[in-house]
Amino acid sequence: MSFGLDNLPYGVFSVDGGKPRVGVRLEDQVLDLAPLLGDDVFREPTLNPFMARGRGAWRATRGRVQDLLADDRGAEHLIPLDRVRLHLPIDVADYVDFYASLEHASNLGRMFRPDEEPLKPNWRHLPVGYHGRAGTVVVSGTEIRRPCGQRPSFGPSAKLDIEAEVGFVVGAGSELCRPAGAFDEHVFGVVLVNDWSARDIQAWEYVPLGPFLGKSFATSISAWVTPLDALDHARVGGREQDPAPLDYLRRNAEWGLDLALEVRLNGEVVSTPPYRDMYWTPDQMLAHMTVNGASLRTGDLYASGTVSGEDSPGSLIELTWNGARPMKSGQSFLEDGDEVTITATTPSGLSLGEVTGRILPATVR
Amino acid sequence: MSFGLDNLPYGVFSVDGGKPRVGVRLEDQVLDLAPLLGDDVFREPTLNPFMARGRGAWRATRGRVQDLLADDRGAEHLIPLDRVRLHLPIDVADYVDFYASLEHASNLGRMFRPDEEPLKPNWRHLPVGYHGRAGTVVVSGTEIRRPCGQRPSFGPSAKLDIEAEVGFVVGAGSELCRPAGAFDEHVFGVVLVNDWSARDIQAWEYVPLGPFLGKSFATSISAWVTPLDALDHARVGGREQDPAPLDYLRRNAEWGLDLALEVRLNGEVVSTPPYRDMYWTPDQMLAHMTVNGASLRTGDLYASGTVSGEDSPGSLIELTWNGARPMKSGQSFLEDGDEVTITATTPSGLSLGEVTGRILPATVR
């Protein structure tokens, strides 16, 4: 079942303009946790205070909710999804975006730097990543205004694109200058991410300090955070790595995830990127991000980078080869009014929900 | 006077392990604002709630404090600086670092990319910038642990460096997809910044997405935030720009600042970078950062990038030309136990306080 007892993702909802609070999704309903469990942490408007309690609390809560629902206690606290409004589930602390797909990094290298080796010399030695703008992370369904900027002449982006990604939400932080613990001690759960990208703005601005305005106008995440514990059956070893990574990046457990993504443009599937084939796994990203002594905070979000398989890229710039091979619709990038929806499922059919957004025309400034 | 009635920077302090609260510095004392003004916003542990009130409130509060102090009312709420502990004054939302010095960008270009033009083609057209890690911004005085990482072999950074910068604290935010207002509507004040940098880690990791672990282990800011209103007499037109910037980057007011920085290494002045000669001014940075529709939040911090004059660079990599010309002490980068202090003054002798930090040895991991 997509949203059955084995799933139970967390989100933040409100009813009739009331105060946002924490719920769990069961099929097409939201379980109102605060009254069910008698715990005020679920009356908070984000998951952060609950997530800060750590892995023991996450497991205990999930177990209790499963028990109650299995016994049919809780029915009075179920609210139909179509009666609620969903909000950004987390207060995002720092947002980091990685670049973990070999196919994506190679494709982008070929297009942005045609005269060079597609992969930079560091790429197979560390998960390349950078910080994005936490303040413009928005919940699925938020409309996305086409950004303006230097392309290099000034105007609305003519190459507005998507990046289909998988994101990891840090629940339990770590101290500055102390080594972080295991991946599942810190990471609470998984979201789907659309890292909207204005390719023309990005191509002009990104040297030498990386993407900035080409990405910072908006990043959408799914309204439901799937707990790591729901994904045990989807765990896989992760792609073979050559050269073998340094000690601190060695995989101590299987944290690859077998997630099948689908990207829909105006309802039509345009790509089906396989997350399981990513070169760098999320435990490696966490180890890398903290190896210099950087701390983690509750609410940190880090994303995989575009999930691209060999014939199933997670961005339009790859799908249409920067406009050289338009889609059937004739278009190569996003047009005003376009709606993009990214979904993902596990091998057992568990759904990670969706991240969706529609493009609004640029504001003339 | 350095910290007289014309200065009055804001900070967060505590006494005897008590709760941190907001104060204003007068000479070598802290004025305890909450009891003086009878306003609980100053009992908060960061400046954010006060800053969120906006420019009208900032000016009114400053005027009232100046009046009270001039009339000698307030003496009972002055606490000697040596009795208080200073804390990180703001809850940092997003942290952006620019690259606004022509000399710094040219110098780094020559060292990192010796076979190319020092400046990338975009540099004179937009203030190049990127997001840094907000969660590792620390207050002046915090000890800095030497980071480990790939250099590309794994180990403690052997090229630990400083970057002397001027930072701008956003007090009043702006809405997503709405144009931001004037610089002084949003920016509350100025801090000094030391953007610690591990050059060996940075050089290996930074292509193609920019600096990450080479910077994210720590960024220090001064404990005192100088209100923009205290800096009126230091305003200058800003360096001439060629080519003329695009409309949205046109300067509508003089927001260059005549600040004389001093960088001390273990007590000895090693450089005196002039902020007034920076190519891009902070109003231009704010306009650029938001032109794509990105919102500002209370607590956003953006920094100028290294302040380097022709013969007075704000980093050791420039001062020693990446080790080719060691300092008198024989060293080229930071050694364990080194203490770096950055200060700045205006033409009238007003002090912007200091940002200081001492290097702790790497933890063997």
From TrEMBL, chains A, B:
Alphabetic keyword roster: Calcium, Hydrolase, Magnesium, Metal-binding, Phenylalanine catabolism, Tyrosine catabolism
Known pathway: Amino-acid degradation; L-phenylalanine degradation; acetoacetate and fumarate from L-phenylalanine: step 6/6
Domain of life: Bacteria
List of residues binding Ca(2+): 97, 163, 165, 195
Amino acids binding Mg(2+): 195, 215, 219
Requisite cofactors: Mg(2+); Ca(2+)
Active site positions, chain numbering: 104 (proton acceptor)
Positions in coiled-coil regions: none
GO biological process, one term: L-tyrosine catabolic process
Pfam families named among the record's database cross-references: FAA_hydrolase, FAA_hydrolase_N
Keyword Metal-binding: yes
Amino-acid positions noted as binding substrate in the UniProt annotation, renumbered to this chain: 99, 113, 202, 206, 306
Hydrolase in keyword set: yes
Residues annotated as domain Fumarylacetoacetase N-terminal: 7-89
Domain Fumarylacetoacetase-like C-terminal residue range list: 96-346
E.C. code: 3.7.1.2
UniProt-listed InterPro entries: Fumarylacetoacetase, Fumarylacetoacetase-like_C, Fumarylacetoacetase_C_sf, Fumarylacetoacetase_N, Fumarylacetoacetase_N_sf
Molecular function via GO: fumarylacetoacetase activity; metal ion binding
Protein name as it appears in the record: fumarylacetoacetase
Organism of origin: Herbidospora galbida
